[in-house]
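Incident log, structure service

09:12 report received: a user says their structure output differs between two submissions of the same chain.
09:20 pulled the input from the user's history:
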Amino acid sequence: MSGLAALREQFRYYLISTVKACGVSVLAEELNEDVLAIFNATESSARVVAGELGISHLFCEPSFRMRASLGFTKQLQRKHHFVRERLWYDKIANYKGQRIIFICGANHVPTFAGLVRDKGQRVVILTAYYGRDFFESVTPHRFCQILCPRNPPPAPYGPAILSNLL
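09:34 re-ran on a clean worker, output below:
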């Protein structure tokens, strides 16, 4: 099993055990169908786990079409974080009072946690950078090769494995 495949499986197990142990009823993530298509992925780890456990799942990242309507460039930049994080919050706001795991990139953890706290919600950061050792040991070029092979096989999980938990 490749390093990334092993990390995916470890992440899947981590999600399942955390959802069960903490009574989580919603898995939400910084992801959307457009991103799955870019990575030739048919599914996200979080959506698969949510389906297996019979809990809700939310893709919270705006679609490419919505990003364009908001004036975002194709390459997301830090200046876009503010708007994106508020859109994520709007997606999970209907689930107030429920336990939610939100999966996002490490660079969003402090600001998104702050936003959720500012809205009066309790936040527990489970990990600020899931898989840090793996990602720090792989060069950016090799990482892209692993994620996007030229002739990719159908991927059972999407890029949610690359995310972090809030």
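09:41 both user submissions now match this output. Likely a transient worker issue. Closing.
09:42 reviewer note: The chain has one domain: 3-165. The first strand starts at residue 26 and ends at 29.
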